Amino acid sequence: MFLFTTHRHTTRELLNALRGGGAACPSSALHLYSQFRLRLRPSDPSHLAWRAAVVTLRPLTAASSLPLISHFHGHLLRSNLLAYPQIASSLLRSYSLLSPPSAHQLFDQIPPATRNTYVLNVMLSSLCRSSDLDSARAFFDDIPDKDIVCWSTMLACYFSRGRLADGFAFFRSVTFTTDIAVDDVMLATLLTACTSAGLLPPFCRAIHGYAIRYAIPPSMHLGTALIDGYTKAGRLDYATRVFALVPHRNVIHWTAMICGMASHLCNNEAVQLFEEMCQRRVQPNEMTFTGALRACVNAGLVEKGRDFFKLMVDRYCLEPDIHHYGCMVDLYAKAGLLEDAYEVIKNMKVEPNVIIWTSLLTACKEFKNFEIAVEGIEKALALGISDENTGLYMLITDLYAMGGRWDGVIKIRRLMQEHNVWKNRGLSSIKVDKPQGLSSAAPS
DNA sequence: TTAGGGTTAG
């Protein structure tokens, strides 16, 4: 925290305070910035002015404060700071995250001389997020000097729209028709797309092989994408090896590894890794706790799970979300502690969803506890019936039958009939030669 | 010293 003293701070000191997180909240950032502007002299180097404005925008954007950003935009216009590409790209990015139409308006007002590669890339990224793919592609085609960021942005756009074949064709065109050197970010983009499309493990190994061949280190995002890819491909051994090789492991690397271990039922290893992470003073986030709690659920470690949940709230001041409550309900329910599970649901700060009710009611069926089941059923029915929760309705039917409540069975059957929803038969398939989503045409 | 990309519950 930056403290104001009787000492008259120089512009450099104020800039360092802004940059060093001395202004985590928007109001203190704007206060520091106004102090900075008061001290700024014509003799100061011009880069001080735009740097201060750039770092002031960060907390405003992090707080998603559109009114403050608009207010700051006014100041930037009046002080002619928007002529700096650094400011233009920062402001454009802030708007594109919070209000894409405002970003597009701003872009039209940026003079062509200011529209450098950074500005164009932010605009492309904004179009990729908020407009149709063809508009983004048209904008991409018009960019004169495309760099790796530009190509990566467009590549991610294809994948995020589910256009796998076009994305792979696009990647091929990067490698075969340009001199662009593929980097770790582009490989991470490619790998993430393969992981979500289930094109593993050969693709994961191929991309990893490419990274090794071209000496691209598994740093940051590529490290996470590899860990996640290998764990989802069932290769915990490779994931562990990559994890060990990541130079500066951050919370996301640890989380990907912990979640990967938990999903493969290496529960004790996941719990150990989580504890090691805390010992090394790496701050866990909400997702890390989901992984750690899931390991406790799988292993039936009720006490440990309870401790982790308490640790999350008390020590790390994290607000539990639906995933954490879901784990806690499951933790107690699977151990037969149905009262505790139901208590979690009653005290939740978010509405329970179909997963939570299914978790509780499945345990009610297993442990033949009709009392809690009846209470739960009443509330679960409030979710309403849809194609997504027919499983829950079937479970409720079973529970009514178990309690001899045939009127309930008839009621649910009638509801399902009225809404024309039926439980689908279990079905699973494996594509062997041609993975799904690879059938569309290559881009022009 | 302004741009792209990564991790969660039945």
Summarize the model shown.
The protein is an all-alpha fold and 444 residues long. It has 24 helices and no strands. Helix 18 runs antiparallel to helix 19 and helix 21 runs antiparallel to helix 22 (370-380).
Count of β-strands: 0
By secondary-structure content and strand pairing, the structural class works out as: mainly alpha
Q: What fraction of residues sit in β-strands?
A: under 5%
Shape: globular
Major sheet description: none
Radius of gyration: 27 Å
Number of helices: 24
State the share of residues found in helices, binned by percent.
Answer: 55-70%
The secondary-structure element order is HHHHHHHHHHHHHHHHHHHHHHHH
Poorly predicted regions: 435-444
Residue-averaged pLDDT: 90
The CA-CA distance between the termini, in Å, is: 53 Å
Fold topology:
Blueprint: H1 11-19, H2 26-39, H3 46-62, H4 66-78, H5 85-98, H6 100-109, H7 117-130, H8 133-142, H9 148-160, H10 164-177, H11 184-196, H12 202-213, H13 220-232, H14 236-245, H15 251-263, H16 267-279, H17 286-299, H18 302-315, H19 322-334, H20 338-347, H21 354-366, H22 370-380, H23 390-402, H24 406-418
The protein binds one DNA strand of 10 nucleotides through helix 3, helix 5, helix 7, helix 9 and helix 11.
